[in-house]
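Lab notebook, bench 4. Still working through the backlog of constructs that have no structural model yet. Next entry is a single chain of 337 residues. Request: give me the structure tokens for it.
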Amino acid sequence: MIAKPALPAHYRSELVPTLFHIPYLERANQAREFAHQHGILAAQSDARRTCLLLVDVQNTFCTPGFELVVPGAVDDNQRLCEFIYRNLGEITAIVLTLDTHSPFQIFQPFTWVDATLAHPVPGTIISVEDVERGRWRINPQLAGSGAQEDYQRLDDEYARHYVRKLAQKGRYPLTIWPPHGMAGSIGHALVPAVEEAIYFHSIARYAAPRFLYKGESPLTEHYAVFESEVDEDQFGRPVGTQHRELLRDLLAYDRLIVAGQAKSHCVAWTVQYMIEKAMELGGEQMANLFLLEDCTSPVVIPGVYDYTEDARAAFARFAEAGAHPIPSTRPLSAWPP
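Model written out:
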């Protein structure tokens, strides 16, 4: 049995579900000392380059009391922190996505009204039929009145185009989510314990993390980091923020590891996109794709929706396609090449 590397002395698993300030300078000094003690070299010296892609590990999804907490996220993040610390010398780079929202977007309650001008409650599914029959329509106080060009395009014609396009692409139907991941909020920030582990890694390995923001557009949902759910309006004009060039960078690593929240949505669609594009290139990169299945959980809101089965089915498809579900407790040094 391969022995697990030691965890740094500062790490406390009981702090993972809490908010706290990170003493950066103290952690930096500890990281350099830890690297010296364990013979951990700068990331540029890695012969086998490994990237850890972390999807939306934010308070809004992970920290108790916040807006859209995924059941299981606290335990996921305890395992994730320990995975990072135990594999500092093996992880070359860390890339992070951040779900980033504002008050009036197509999935926000106050963007929509019914015939009485009431807004849909979070958890409402808006179908093609709902929009075409006028059950839900764009809030007339919003459409065409915004200073931003995107808000001026948000009208009932675009709404019909949007829900139809989701159906044509086989995506989840439009879901009204509770306000979450609001730009500049505490909910938008990384879970402190995870941020601390990432910072510790960056100093120990002289490797700055890379941050990617997604979900800012009022006109579309944005689950996969690479592209928005709908990427063109009814006139063929682009909507949303696309990070398609990121795939080339990620697939250039010898190992790409994915974790984060939620398993049924942003993680699943991110992995799905990577697999589709890898297959278009011949599928050879699939041997390099690993999924930390014990560091991600599905969206479940009791009495509203439960995406557990959707997540299970998605990850079964990924494994069939050649991706490798791997437990975080197995040291990277013991993973397949």
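Notes after review: The chain has ten helices and twelve strands. The CA atoms of residues 145 and 196 lie 42 Å apart. Flag for follow-up if needed.
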